[in-house]
Amino acid sequence: MTVKTRFAPSPTGYMHLGNARTALFNALFAWQEQGVFLLRIEDTDQERSTTEFAQQLMQDLQWLGLSWQEGPNVNEISPPYYQAQRGEIYARYYQQLMDNDQAYPCFCSAAELSLSRKLQRAAGQAPRYAGTCAHLSPSEIEAKLAQGVQPTLRFRVPKNEKIIFTDMVRGEQQFMSDDIGDFIIRRADGTPAFFFCNAIDDALMQVTKALRGEDHLTNTPRQLMILSALNLPAPQYGHFSLILGHDGAPLSKRNGSMSIKELREKGWLSLAVVNYLARLGHSYTEDTLLSLEELARQINDQRLGHAPSRFDPQHLKHWQQLALSQLDDEQWWQWLTHNITLEIPSDLCHLFIHAVRPNVLFPEDAQQWAEMILTENLVWNEEAHLVIKETDSAFFNHALIALHNSQGDYAKLVDELKQTSGLKGKKLFMPLRAALTGVTHGPEMAYLLPLIGIHRAEQRLSSAADQDSL
Ligand SMILES: Nc1ncnc2c1ncn2[C@@H]1O[C@H](COP(=O)(O)OP(=O)(O)OP(=O)(O)O)[C@@H](O)[C@H]1O
Ligand SMILES: [Zn+2]
What we know:
- By secondary structure, this protein is mostly helical.
- The protein is built from 19 helices and eleven strands.
- It is 48% helix and 10% strand.
- The radius of gyration is 32 Å and the shape is elongated.
- The termini are far apart.
- Adenosine-5'-triphosphate (ATP) binds at residues 9-10, 12-13, 18-19, 21-22, 212-213, 215-216, 240, 242-243, 250-254.
- Residues 9-10, 12-13, 18-19, 21-22, 212-213, 215-216, 240, 242-243, 250-254 line the site of adenosine-5'-triphosphate (ATP).
């Protein structure tokens, strides 16, 4: 059977790195075996789901390179792929469960349920549905319906069953059915509960593997019981530990974790993002930057881990650096100017690229260098200020003369300045850089100077000379 994996997000916010890793691993495990990566939009939470989030989600997946081989607008063999449109399908399975007495209407009010839970806790028991409506007679049900009470539908959990499954990430898992109370599969407003439609859809769409976050681990026995009651096949499940933010809480749409959209807008490269994510909860033998094809080829379920992982921006930056270094100059310029507008004159672009590329991780870095190059009002940072103050004004006057004589050729300028100032090494390069760029580190001066131009360089050296004499 062909491997079919799926990503089944809810369009209730912007996709974050935790969601993206789930999507990535599902895609990689499918592609490794030339299988199908399916996308299904789980928009049953009508209040929080929006079409805008769904659109953004798909755009984010495309940007990450995680295109789906089945799902919205692609190879629609089990449509629709939006759960909000699958009500009729779910209705058939609710009916089947009711016909077989595997589900029953529950008329308990929220207050009654809460009271029951309190009593159970007070008696030292784990709270679960007490079964109040489990054995109502048809006439009792009729009477309640006649009063206009909208019931929920509960799944009748089989007694004394052991539910065992092998988790792709965590190995064998066991649950006892008696620990699980009869649970709601259809809410009073008619909408399906997550475990229900998620399980039914995986079966109908013939999903063979479902990797997801460990927030779903306790849903799994419920889903397996539903599928078994309906005689439907279950996928192989795998549950990853959640990715935690710097505050130690799981990344979540609700707590404003950095979204994929935001990462893209800041100029992160998608190849950096997927290389980073592929190594959270999975180890590769190679620590070089890999293409998606290579990541898929080398993914291995024996190398999955469930140690908790924390989002580390430093690691992501490492991958950003590697991904950037793979771009040729034209791609690099495109990446840059896609994100920002630069005032660099077009005949100097090439020089600019050579000058700043090694110092740029994000477009905004390049923007800062461009501003430094072009400004008529250079501001020194604290360190530069200090260096300039500690340097004799004669040095900058010598530098001014050397600038003229060299016509802006940095190597010539330095040669002459060595002679005239008698300084060399750090003592020479630091004040020169500080005066010309306002900072004490940065791109190679030999590239920067022609960009700054003789006129601005002259002004900058003069103000350094002036400052010193103050
Ligand atoms: N912090 C996380 N780390 C890893 N995976 C996660 C994380 N949060 C969610 N997931 C996984 O992402 C997939 C899609 O989940 P879903 O669309 O429900 O998003 P969510 O972030 O859990 O939403 P919400 O913040 O509303 O709970 C699921 O497999 C879920 O387990
Ligand atoms: Zn009830």
